[in-house]
Amino acid sequence: MRSGLPAAALAAFATAVTFASARAVDVTVGLGAAYAPDYEGSEDYQALPLWNLRLGDLYGEETFVQIIGTTLNSNLLPNEHWRLGVAGLYRSDYDDVDNNRVEDIKSTDEALLLGPTLGYDFVAGVARDFAVEVDALYDVANGNGGVVTPRLRGKTELAPGLVGEARLSATWASGDYIGNFFSINSADAARSGLDRYDADEGIKDVTIGGGLTYRFTERWSLTGIAAYSRLLGDAADSPIVDDEGDENQFAAGALINYRF
Known about the structure:
Elements: H1 7-20, E1 26-37, E2 45-56, E3 64-68, E4 71-75, E5 82-91, H2 100-103, E6 111-121, E7 129-139, E8 146-159, E9 162-173, H3 175-182, H4 186-192, E10 202-215, E11 220-231, H5 233-237, H6 239-242, E12 248-259
Antiparallel strand pairs: 1-2, 1-12, 2-3, 3-4, 4-5, 5-6, 6-7, 7-8, 8-9, 9-10, 10-11, 11-12
């Protein structure tokens, strides 16, 4: 995660605000901090600001748009079980990372991934769910391929006011996407001192994560999130990860939320 929120994600949220302004919607704003790798595959970690912007019940209690950190999630289909929306994710380049050798890799472009998300929730209602979902995202910023992420997600109330959520996912990445972030061409190898490397498409990672939200008043809540990812295949074998980083990736954060 990076501290700059992509302009396209902000624009999407602003569009949803404009669309929903004609009726009463649930608006939640949150602010906190996260501790996450400096880049995907890094062994260096840093503290970052974390935000949560969510519009719920747009035109049905299942519909929402949410930006949390540099991730966009939504469901625009007012149906008890089926889910359909737009998802997004921002990945930065290596121009401002702590590792000097990785920072010398100049051929990597930042990526703004956008695309559809489709799912089916086996449990009707919004208080509990058990859903299977898939995101298909493409880099609209620089055209460097895309990713497909199938996911299992469950949510339930663990105690009065306390909701827990768990997620399990895997990500397949195209050759252009893997090449952009994990290949090292001849010029970058000479500049950084890392070995030249040609990464190809495949399963990039598996991730398990979850969160807890405690609502201690009608309007105020506290959310904690955590995730573990294991990089796989050509991503894990890249010198960017294998020599200079770590295939095991952890992230955690906490937010204070206010519901209007």
